[in-house]
Write a structure and sequence with these properties.
Blueprint (H helix, E strand, L loop, with lengths): L11 H12 L6 H7 L3 E11 L2 E7 L4 H10 L2 E5 L4 H13 L4 E5 L18 E9 L2 E5 L7 E4 H8 L11 E6 L7 H16 L7 H36 L5 H19 L2 H29 L8 H23 L5
Antiparallel strand pairs: 1-2, 3-8, 4-5, 4-8, 5-6, 6-7
Helix pairs in contact: 1-2, 2-8, 3-6, 6-10, 7-9, 7-10, 8-9, 9-10
């Protein structure tokens, strides 16, 4: 088995997919993995609290991209969870001894190679362990610039962190990876699923409806929640967008890159055009985060109001709806 080739990526789940598949001879870019896995999404969950405040997500739930990509590309994976750390570490050591890189779910909080300011309780971070050096494990964490190491105790804590979702020592590795695949049908399936989730899912908190749902709540934050809690709620929207994982704008940029790559592969100019326009929507998300951050920090006397922030989100929702309606109508022969 060849040495594991680490490439830094934008997002952990798609990064592990790209790096791990390439190790087995199947080259697929991170944006392509994101698009085939229909990773683009939006959801605002006022009843699901993250550190005591409502949760907002800009991508599909953790693990969904990986399972969809594997299914659509014909990759057979083995996934295991464990009842005890000893069994989990024994299983990991056995796979490493065979020269098999192992993907795993972990908590960011217990990864010592992360800067302290980035170590928070998020239990769905993906990384690859590909070997050992003495008592330390060799780690390819796709969002890090280079490979790194982690000691046994911290790795155990990261693999068995409490809280939702509990990793329970989850590890996974390919059993069968095709050397070459035709991406046409997987691309079509990924686009169709993404359009459904953004436009037609019958839940008002998801997709473009979810962006409008959040916009209206943001406009009422000060009167309903008070200034302090309004600032906390708004701050968490920004944090989920700009600091946790790839973030809202980052996922829009990645999906735009997927559409342009798919457009070139399928010789479809409409896909490339939509990808270019989606990049502009990513810029709108970044502008929202900038203005919302100024409101949270009260750094200027002329900050815009919560009502204006909500209007920015309503505009974003309108633009994303236009994008995905156009995309849903593209003929992919």
């Amino acid at each position: 088995m060849t040495a594991f080739n680490h490439v830094q990526t934008a997002h952990c789940e798609t990064g592990v997919i790209s790096n791990m598949f390439r190790h087995y001879g199947l080259t697929i870019s991170e944006p392509m993995a994101f698009g085939i896995g229909a990773g683009i999404f939006f959801g605002h969950l006022p009843f699901v609290k993250v550190n005591g405040v409502p949760g907002t997500t800009y991508r599909i739930w953790p693990g969904a991209i990986f399972s969809r990509v594997c299914k659509r590309l014909g990759v057979k994976m083995e996934s295991r969870k464990f009842s005890s750390p000893d069994k989990a570490m024994q299983a990991l050591d056995e796979m490493i001894a065979k020269g098999i890189p192992v993907g795993m779910q972990s908590s960011v909080y217990y990864l010592p190679y992360f800067p302290p300011s980035y170590r928070f309780h998020f239990n769905a971070h993906n990384l690859v362990v590909y070997g050992k050096n003495g008592g330390d494990y060799l780690v390819s964490d796709p969002i890090m610039e280079t490979v790194t190491t982690i000691d046994r105790e911290n790795l155990i804590q990261a693999r068995f962190a409490k809280g939702f979702p509990e990793p329970k020592g989850k590890m996974y590795y390919p059993l069968e990876v095709p050397g070459k695949v035709d991406l046409k049908e997987p691309i079509k399936a990924g686009i169709k699923q993404a359009c459904y989730y953004m436009l037609k899912i019958p839940v008002p908190m998801f997709g473009v409806k979810g962006i409008r749902f959040l916009a209206k709540r943001v406009q009422k934050y000060p009167e309903k929640e008070g200034d302090r809690r309004a600032g906390l709620y708004l701050g968490n929207i920004i944090r989920m967008q700009e600091e946790i994982g790839t973030g809202g704008a980052g996922f829009r940029f990645m999906y735009a890159a997927f559409l342009m790559e798919a457009g070139a592969l399928l010789q479809n100019e409409a896909l490339k055009s939509i990808g270019k326009d989606l990049t502009a929507v990513g810029d709108l998300w970044r502008n929202f985060a900038f203005e919302a951050g100024r409101v949270c920090k009260a750094r200027a006397a002329n900050n815009i109001s919560y009502k204006e922030l909500g209007n920015m989100l309503l505009h974003i929702a309108d633009e994303e709806e236009k994008i995905f309606r156009r995309l849903s109508n593209v003929k992919l022969a």
